[in-house]
Amino acid sequence: MDEMNRAWRLLLLLTLYRIFLAAGFVVLMVSGMQPMPLASSNPDVFYYSSLAYLCISIASLYPLLHRRPHYLWQAYALTLIDILTIIAWMHSSGGVSSGVGMLLVISIANTSMISAGRISGFFAALASIAVLAEQMYNVAFGMGDRVNFSMAGLLGLTLFVTAILASVLANRARENEQLAHQRGIDLKNMSKLAEMVIQKMTTGVVLIDSQRQVVLTNWAARQLLGAHHQQTPIHLQYFSPELNVHFLRFQRTQPKNNKLLINNGVESLLMQVVRLDAFQEEDGQNHLLILEDANALAQQSQQIKLAALGRLTAGIAHEVRNPLSAISHANALLKESPDLSAQDLRLTEIVEQQTRRINRIVEDVLQLGKRDSVQAEHLRLREWLPHFLSEFYQVVPEAEPSFTLEPPKQEIEGWFDPAHLRQILHNLCQNAFRHALQAQDPASVLIRFGHLTQHRGYIDVYNNGPSIDPDHIDRLFEPFFTMSPKGTGLGLYISRELAQANQGELQYRSDQDNGTCFRVVFNTALVKME
């Protein structure tokens, strides 16, 4: 469509050229100021042919503006009229020696640019034949002084060369235009692809110029900086004051390490500053700020370490279980001996208890190997938690009278691995019930869940047991730390690791109204109840 529009515009310009040329000749003839040798042999033929050419050119504007018929047919018709009119001008001006025939070169060149191909050679041949016919006419009617076959042949050769060159150049121009158009499409597609990739990146990208104007940013950067509604270009100070302060500090100090840690009290970000030498300006330099969530990076690093630790502990646990199984089996055989004294029988019971304790520790350690295999699902907590509690009551039936589940006013869909959440809550509920039994009042455990923000939810497990010693709070999540003689000290540690593997948190909270509380924080999708 664009190529056709250009052809119509070119044809319109050529028609305007014809109107201007014919009108100029008519004005010269009417004023009697035509230069020699124009109209030197037959002024009437020159004048009337110019007038007819002017009228035809003006009339051709109507089909041209309505674009009917096809532009090629209009171009062919106008070229035939050009040849006939110019031959008439040439004959009335003294023949081929007058130089008027050179106007044919312009007409043939124009036709070759529009049509190209063999048709341009056809019109060049037709114009050459017309020139030779005019020379033969002069010979036939005794106008020998106006005959010059050598010049006519040279004009015909010029017409052919013009047609060939114009056709070749037009084809080359079309090919280059199509190539440039295709390259433009490719470049546009690559630009859109690059923009889409940048926008989909989880790493934040902020491009600032020498005046600290934010030129480009992606969704991840806006998410990390909390600048969701800022429109670019905008000064860095107004886009993110914290980022502006750290960038100015970087410019002043120019550290060898181009990575800075930004802590705004809520999130920790790792900022990397990249100087863009390819976009150097006269009065400064552009910079690219690459932002990453430091907590997420630390979590990824921890996941890699824990994956290796899980493989190591699995190997160690396997090597421990084999001799442990042999000890347990030998102790069972020894216990069946009729010759054992009461003291020896007591010793076998101690061995059995301790082997079970070691086996439980090994099983807890093996859970670390499952931390990096997360299969998160959307869990509707109003349905999932009662089902979990029914399973918990089957394991600890004496706990059922002490537990209360308080549902929220809105449904919460938690994004969590069901097996991980089941293990976390089982540990918390078991600890809460055991702790609540130490209270002077009847044991009470309250489970409450809801949403903190639109994208974060929580599950609280309260118990009315005695408060935890402040000296022990900082060590609650340390491995092998326990306040129960029968505990392994790995329950809270593994629960916290499983929560972090699901992009959540396990927190200890002290609540004066409800007692001791452990909170599980997780990603949510808020759904209103019907």
Automatic annotation (TrEMBL):
SUPFAM superfamilies for the chain: ATPase domain of HSP90 chaperone/DNA topoisomerase II/histidine kinase (SSF55874), Homodimeric domain of signal transducing histidine kinase (SSF47384)
GO molecular function, one term: phosphorelay sensor kinase activity
Key words of the record: Membrane, Phosphoprotein, Transmembrane, Transmembrane helix
Positions of the Histidine kinase domain: 315-526
Domain of life: Bacteria
E.C. number: 2.7.13.3
Catalytic function, reaction form: ATP + protein L-histidine = ADP + protein N-phospho-L-histidine
Annotated TM spans: 12-33, 45-64, 96-115, 122-143, 149-170
Stored InterPro entries: HATPase_C_sf, HATPase_dom, His_kinase_dom, HisK_dim/P_dom, HisK_dim/P_sf, Sig_transdc_His_kin-like_C
Name of the featured protein: histidine kinase
Organism: Nitrincola tibetensis
